What does this fold into?
Amino acid sequence: MPENIQWFESWFDTSYYHLLYANRDENEARHFLGRLTDILQIPKCSKILDLACGKGRHSIYLHSKGFEVKGVDLSENSITKAKEETAKGLSFGVHDMRQPLPDKFNYIFSLFTSFGYFEKIEEDQAVLNAVGQMLMHGGIFVLDFLNAAKVKNDIASFVGLDFEREGIHFSIEKKISSGRVQKEIVVNDGSKTSTFNEFVRLYTQTELISMLNKARLEPFDFFGNYELGPFNQNESERLLIFARKKR
It folds into this structure.
């Protein structure tokens, strides 16, 4: 991979990426989004930005609930697919989330670990700064992130995965390096073997709170799973943070 190309720029646009994650639980995602919109009591006239929207499955669901939704992603292939579902009040675009859009939103969602991808902490901070600029005063940002402490414990006992999907063999290993969890994915497609990596920086709750405050985003609630149960640093699978744009 060329030095100036980051891992997600090549991996997310491959057919292998979409095949590997094709079995993500749509019912779980819809159930979570339903609980999320209920607990936030989002008015129907609200404008929502779905950051790193992929093929737009969450944006499309949110739009079906009566909200005006814009989904953005760096992957051109994903956005091309998402645009097949465009309708009034629903739009998609290719966009780097480190840069703010000119639009303003009532709510911004970063769902299913779409944060912490960048090599430098300053780049992740730029994402939050952009969120702060795009939110209306009093608007709410939802950051759905992994629980760093739980990930560290789980990786210690991770033994690797080997499986086939539609005739393509995947081998997956995980490790922690330089404060980031690294997932190495080796794909064997007949006579062709390719290696891809995913990186997510392991930010703690305290670190994320500090970063959000720097972006003028004030955390006011924390949850530990998609049922929106309480967050426990040692046991929770997720860390969901609700933060409000400071006036």
